[in-house]
Amino acid sequence: MTAALLNELRAIAGDAHVLTDPDLRASYETDWTRRYQGRALCVVRPGSTEEVSRVVRACAAAGAAVVPQGGNTGLVGGSVPRGREVVLSLRRLATIGDFDTVSGEVTAGAGVTLSSLQQHIREGGWAFGVDLASRDSATIGGMVATNAGGIRVIRYGAMRRQVLGFEAVLADGGIVRRMPGLVKDNTGYDLGQLLAGSEGTLAILTAVRVRLVPQLERRTVALLGVRELAGALEVVAAVRGELPSLEAAEAFFPEGVELVCRHAGIGLPFATHPGCYVLVECAGRRDESAELAEVLGGCAAVENSAMASDAAGRARLWAYRERHTEAINAEGIPHKLDVTLPLARLAEFEARVRGTIAAAVAGARPILFGHAGDGNLHVNILGLDPDDDRADDAVFRLVAELGGSISAEHGVGIAKLPWIGLTRSAEDLAAMRAIKKALDPRGMLNPGVIFPLE
Q1: Model pTM?
Q2: Which candidate, 372, 354, 89, 444, places its Cα nearest to that of 224?
């Protein structure tokens, strides 16, 4: 059966796009964190939606499960094989289609990288509302499938809010299309919104129609030092209340900045560390540096500040935040816990979580950073064995105690399966299982993700 399936996949996608050699499969079998990996039956790289459909039909007929994969930048093990599944890579679906410069909409294949989309639409005077540090490798299809958020959620929302239309292949190989997408369309269920955040468990996205936002070239970034996260949240609230141009609000801490400076070879932003760093960026049609400086001048929590409006200066300040991930990864394989809290409880969580981790595992090194405007903190923990979940368990239970969610923007994948019941009720999970069963009755799409294997 395996040989027959491989031959059929080669007939569909071509010999060069069905990978069985272990060395060629390797990069598709390990996720970005290096914590999750498995063996695939093969990797198949179809070149069109029709080929994706035929691949899925062939796999269904052979009883082979399928793991959809985009840029493989996921952090929860949801995009790599676990038990000899067929990895269906969507990277060749990299065409950017209809670009409507009047309405601000564009159609992108699932394999289009975020940076490619950004560059393409910039020439037409538009920008995309979601931005990530992994922009050069993260794909649009994967970003929708995980409902990625990033640094601009405070202004534009996560990926779900950008979706106007979609094209997807169902578990039986059928193709569902809602293209080119309409701003208003009340003819029944919005399947595109359902697929956003489904992590490839309901259907395989092959193309997406997304809304765009105006290109705003006048930007000002301020890096601030405050005593604690509570003060950072006060600063963000003040800027948000006075300047609708606020586009990003990031928080991070001395232990992370120390790592960044050491690995990137840059100096500290201030002579001494504050208790907490907060970075804000405003973007508009005109320079709002004076207005931002005035608002910040009225914030008693601000102890240190640096501001830049030129591109080089903005990049220099952003480096202290955006280079956290590479600096952390350079230290070892981290446990990456992406959580969200009600804003009113975020400072309490930050004040307690390091002690919670230390009590669970002596010697563990927590490094926190995140999005101060939407309650999302990334808790990175170094010094743990990949399979040691004691600190994960302690952090997730603290999150649940404070009314938060165990996943803000990375998804559940396989990493968070044991804890999904902490923040989703039995009724929630039953409803989600019913949807999964209706669209994928045989459980062949990304088995073991979001729900345990049955």
Answers
A1: 0.93
A2: 372
